[in-house]
Structure formats: C-alpha cells, structure tokens
C-alpha cells in the first residue's frame, strides 16, 4: 500500500492516495462519476450539434420554400393582372354590344309597330301607282 501523503496523478487531476478502502472506494466513485459526466457531456454536445444541424437544414428548406412561393406569387400576380385587364376589355365589349343590341331592338320594335298600321310601308308609293291608272299604265311600256 502507498503512504498516506503520496499523490497519484489520474488524467488531469491529482488525487491523494490513502491506505483505507473507504478512501479507495471514494476515489473510484469519483473517477466513475467523472467518466460518466464526460460521457454525458459528450452525448449532450452530439445532441446539440445534431439539433443545430437539423435547424440549419430547416432554415435551408424554408429559404428554398420561400423563394419558390415568392416566384409563384409573382407569376400568379402577373397572371391575375393580365386576366383582370382582359376582363375589363371584355366588360367594355359587353357593354358596347349590349348597347348595340338594345338599339337594334328599338329599331326592330319601331318597324314592327309600323307594320301593324301600314302593311308594306316601303311599297306604298308603288302600290299607289299600280292602283291609279293615270299615273301608271302597263301599255305605256309597250309602245
């Protein structure tokens, strides 16, 4: 056995080596605890590094997703503006065609209302000539 005041070097710490078994058990427990703490710290560093790597991966994925969404939003906005412009043109054309249709309906309704009073309004001057012998005679064309 070693003397009571002799120091024994273990790794980075110096522990007094005493002759008693209690002290030897105490040193052994302390060494086991130090080894366990180192292993626990190593596992903790590994977990932290893995967590940091996972976060970096998530950031990269989110940046990529954000770029994709920004491009998609830009394209969708451009398409919306084009369609909105085309829609405005079509609405203006619809208003113009509706106005023309209403005007034609008014004209048609006017003709229909006149035909109730005079059967062949445009043929009236010719009808009068046919019925009036003084103005129109068939034999005048035969000479």
Structure write-up:
By secondary structure, the protein is mainly alpha-helical. It has one domain. The chain is built from 3 helices and 2 strands; from the N terminus they run ββααα. It has helices at 21-117, 124-131, 139-142; strands at 7-10, 13-16. The protein has a two-stranded antiparallel ribbon. Strand 1 and strand 2 (13-16) form a beta hairpin. The longest helix is centred in the middle third of the chain and has 97 residues, at 21-117. It is rod-shaped. Residues 1-11 have low confidence and may be disordered.
Question: Keywords for this structure?
Answer:
143 residues; mainly alpha; 6% strand
Uncertain segments are 1-11
Mean pLDDT: 79
Characterize the main sheet: 2 strands, antiparallel
Q: Please tally the helical runs, counting DSSP H or I stretches of 4 or more residues.
A: 3
**How much of the sequence is in beta strands?**
5-15%
| Strand arrangement across the biggest beta sheet | 1-2
In total, the number of strands is: 2
* Spatial separation of the terminal alpha carbons: 167 Å
Main location: nucleus
GO molecular function, one term: transcription cis-regulatory region binding
GO biological process, one term: positive regulation of DNA-templated transcription
Subcellular location: Nucleus
Concise description?
This protein is mainly alpha-helical. It has helices at residues 21-117, 124-131, 139-142, and strands at residues 7-10, 13-16.
